[in-house]
Amino acid sequence: MGDDAVARDSGIRSADRVLRILDEIAAAPHGLTAADVAHRLDLSTATAYRLLGTLVARDYLARSADARYVLGRAVDGLGRAVRSQLVATPEVRTLLSQLRDTARASAYLTVFRGDDIAVAHVADSPAFPRIGQLHVGFAEAAHATAFGKLMLAARDDDGVRRYLERSGAAALTRHSITDERMLLAQLDEVRALQIAIEVDEYMPHLACIAAPVRARSGRTVGAVSVSTSSDDFRSRAHDLERTVRRAAWHVSSSLT
After folding, report:
1. Is 216 helix (H, G, I), strand (E, B) or coil?
2. What tens digit of pLDDT does each residue of 180-225 get?
3. Four-CA torsion 68, 74, 76, 81, nearest 10 degrees
4. Neighbouring residues of 247: CB distance < 8 A, sequence distance ≥ 6
5. Residues sharing a CB contact under 8 Å with residue 187, sequence separation 6 or more, in sequence order
6. 142: which DSSP letter?
7. 4-29 pLDDT, tens per residue?
8. Do residues 62 and 70 touch, judged by C-beta distance below 8 A?
């Protein structure tokens, strides 16, 4: 095994040990001593002290007066960061299922994944099936979907242009907006109304409506949406808008 492979293997072992230390201490209400950590992870005392010292220096652990190690401030900061991000927690999944049943339409949770806009959860049923292409992980056609437009509107015009340069704006139907100026104008309207709608843009005879999910700071972190037939949408657009806005508010509230 070469020097690079040895170093890589050693780094993986060290990272695994650090994570196991955090897990063990998180599960111990009164913390653990270095001897406890060494025993539980089958480490030498010297190795335990070295890893614990690194975690203390980084504020992931703190050492109490009785020489026990407890979780530090950096872990609390990570917890706050997680709570400010949008993930498909059991609570959020329940809210999406309730939206599906109330709206009588399949419901979707969409989040930012780096520079992409991706579907994170789908709440559907035999009575209200999902759009076939919109599976978890779907990260295409933001210019032609309501949730994509809603989340693109959270970026400034330069950010939208960068997205279009990378992903393009293909004509999926004859109603798809592919012109940059027209799309930017539509996104201005989305920003003003805080709601996004598309009818027949992603697929013929299909409509979608989306509302923003916001972190406590007010930043848009995702979208809640429902899809239904174009005719069904036109017959009850106002009710669907109200239902989707309410669901997005409840999902946003779950982040605080």
Report:
1. coil
2. 999 999 999 999 999 999 999 999 999 999 999 998 888 899 999 9
3. -160
4. 95, 96, 98, 99, 102, 103, 107, 211, 224
5. 149, 152, 153, 160
6. G
7. 443 455 567 778 888 899 999 988 88
8. yes
